[in-house]
């Protein structure tokens, strides 16, 4: 059974976009996942097919109408999770991506303007997800990011070596730095340990590097990592 992605958007021409290339593109061609886009405009109201209106209570921007969005959702709704991409959603994590990839697919709702009338998200039990603490001009690029992260985990998309590597990122550390040939480049040498052929030394070096970089860049991950380590006597 394929992973089925359905995207509700005002800009269906943005899909598959980058997901039509490389790993995801090949997987799409081979039927590992499928993509359907629905233009929310098709459910717009009146001669201008309006999808939004001014916010009650005042303020800048426009809000996507609940009746319009609900009709778009109803046209595709099935047992799959409904996900609204919004900057006020819960941050996307690798754990959530893994769960999504293990399921049958998702219906992704992409907003523009100031967002959705909250009632249509509540009435449809939508899960709100954010791809980071910054504001995109719409949910489309967030949906592409979420789909990319899920698709690479589908069986048959990556080689066996890569999927094994994926498991190691279950570990809450940032990755150690990578090096390839040439062994010296612009006066910069590859760390000697990596040339030693000593597997345990390489593993120890990588672990130390991963810890150093995580501690420096991501105090949040570092704190969780430290808390998860068995206490040493
Ligand atoms: N739409 C606008 N910004 C977003 C973000 N950071 N994550 C998800 N959807 C968004």
UniProtKB/TrEMBL annotation:
It catalyses: guanosine(37) in tRNA + S-adenosyl-L-methionine = N(1)-methylguanosine(37) in tRNA + S-adenosyl-L-homocysteine + H(+). Residues 4-223 form the tRNA methyltransferase TRMD/TRM10-type domain. Gene3D superfamilies: 3.40.1280.10, tRNA(m1g37)methyltransferase, domain 2. S-adenosyl-L-methionine binds at residues 111, 131-136. GO terms for biological process: methylation. Its EC number is 2.1.1.228. It is found in: Cytoplasm. CDD domains: TrmD-like. The keyword Cytoplasm applies. Its main location: cytoplasm. Keywords: Cytoplasm, Methyltransferase, S-adenosyl-L-methionine, Transferase, tRNA processing. GO terms for molecular function: tRNA (guanine(37)-N1)-methyltransferase activity. It is an enzyme of class 2 (transferase). The keyword Plastid does not apply. Pfam families: tRNA_m1G_MT. Homodimer. Belongs to the RNA methyltransferase TrmD family. Specifically methylates guanosine-37 in various tRNAs. This is tRNA (guanine-N(1)-)-methyltransferase. The gene is trmD.
